[in-house]
Amino acid sequence: QVQLVESGGGLVQAGGSLRLSCTGSRGFILYSMGWFRQAPGKEREFVAAIRRSDATTYSDSVKDRFTLSRANAENTMYLQMNSLKPEDTAVYYCAADTVGRTVVHGINSVVNYEHWGQGTQVTVSS
């Protein structure tokens, strides 16, 4: 069972920055790793994801503000979030695909990830 441990959430003022980290347990092929977020009363939505090739995909709402990177040797993924807005407030979840569904069916869908972290709260005040 893949374990995903997230860290880095918190409270920040609008325009500020935060960096989220997600570390996965070793011994698994990680086809893709991604970040999703869920605000109260809303569905979980795609934020960004990175493939084994290090190619990245971002949602339109965070493109040019968020940057995703990965340290393969550490099995860790980082999400640098800049120019944060109140509408970025949500619980952020790390996800991993160890089967390959994201390769065939797309990288931005919740259903293509088998493993999830516990979530970390990000709150942006206006």
Report what the structure shows.
There is one protein chain. The longest helix is centred in the last third of the chain and has 5 residues, at 101-105. The chain starts with a strand and ends with a strand. It is built from one helix and eleven strands. With 126 residues, the chain is mainly beta. The strands form two sheets. Strands 2, 4, 5, 6, 9, 10 and 11 form a seven-stranded mixed β-sheet that branches. The protein has a four-stranded antiparallel β-sheet with strand order 1-3-8-7, with no helix packed on it. Strand 5 (45-51) and strand 6 form a beta hairpin.
The secondary-structure class comes to mainly beta
Number of helices: 1
What average pLDDT do the residues reach? 94
What are the low-pLDDT stretches, counting only 5+ consecutive residues below 50? none
User: Main sheet, how many strands, which sense, barrel?
Assistant: 7 strands, mixed
Number of separate strands: 11
Instruction: Estimate the global geometry from the Cα principal axes.
Output: globular
Taken in chain order, the helices and strands follow as EEEEEEEEEHEE
Question: What is the terminal separation in angstroms?
Answer: 40 Å
- CA radius of gyration: 14 Å
Helical percentage: under 10%
Strand content: over 45%
Please describe the structure with a list of short key phrases separated by commas or semicolons:
single chain; 126 residues; mainly beta; seven-stranded mixed beta sheet; four-stranded antiparallel beta sheet; 1 helix; 4% helix
